[in-house]
Amino acid sequence: MAESASAPARLMRRATFRQLEIFDAVARSGSFSRAAEALHLTQPTISMQIRKLSEAVGMPLFEQVGKRVFLTHAGRELYAACRELFRTLDGFEMSIANLRGLKQGALHVAAVTTAEYFLPRILGEFCQRYPGIDVSLEVTNREHALERLRQNLDDLYIFGQPPHDLDVEAVPFLENPLVVIAAAGHPLAGQRRVTPERIAREPFLMREPGSGTRLAAESFFAARGLSPKVRMELGSNEAIKQAVAGGLGISILSGHALRKGEDGLAVLPVQGFPLRKSWYLVYPRGKQLSVVARTFLEFSLRQIKNKC
Ligand code: PGA
How many angstroms does the Cα of residue 160 sit away from the middle of ligand 1? Predict the structure, then answer.
């Protein structure tokens, strides 16, 4: 019983992988001469290999009608088995390429400045997991990150709001609540509730043009028919924090930019805040992500999920 069950497999052991490739080419093209052409072999070589394969199987695989060859029943069975085998081997080759890709490679990420409070940690964990990969992180404001995206300079981008005028894939990544901050001793800091009209009368420290945080602040005020009293423009979250702590005014920034118990700053309980935003992992739609980039994308989504 066991004998007969393993008999076909033993038969096929006498067949070679090359014979199966030749058989597959003939079956697909329905012609010995076209298969010979495709495989850069002579027609007698093709015929001989198919004859040997038929002998190994113990049945004819093709029948000739005129100039065309057709699969016999046994031939159809073998063709299905070949397709399955080649699919499996393709999958195997892809896994090997992936393994190689993750042993060495490069990853270029560009991120808006607010992401610098969490992204380097995730990149650090990624580098530990895949030490052969060179990682570069470009931290810049929204406008510059958009320009890099237009020029396709990086593998992945992180934005506070997905770009609306570009055809991209945007994967929501992590919540990014925007808050209003003032100096710890500010008179509004002790209040239970502060209206948007009230903060519009305070000196406001604004991020530079091109900043996504600035866009969010501007649209918050504009939606209420208000305009903030901009006292100063500053080019980074850290500069904003220092200036706010120094009593120069109030501002809006990502809650992630505040460290717990950070001296000198208070979050104001302004109606409508926190503004509930989210960071997005972005790349041009249709872009073939490298193995490294795809692995990083999945890795970072997993890390965030595990931590939240
Ligand atoms: P940015 O980043 O203010 O540095 O541009 C935040 C964002 O785009 O939401």
Answer: 6
Peptide bond into 274 cis (omega under 30): yes
Domain span including residue 35? 2-87
Q: Ligand 1 test: best mutation among 140, 208, 211, 215, most atoms within 8 Å of CB?
A: 211
Give the Å distances, CA to CA, from 261 to 11, 31, 184, 242: 75, 78, 11, 15
The verdict on the CB of residue 251 being under 6 Å from ligand 1 is: no
- Are 31 and 63 contained in the same domain? yes
Tens digit of each residue's pLDDT (9 = 90 or more) over 118-176: 899 999 999 999 888 889 999 999 999 999 999 888 999 999 999 989 999 999 989 99
The CATH code of the domain that includes 76 is 1.10.10.10
Give the mean pLDDT of 282-288: 90
When divided into structural domains, the chain yields a total of 3
Tell me the β-bridge partners of 50: none
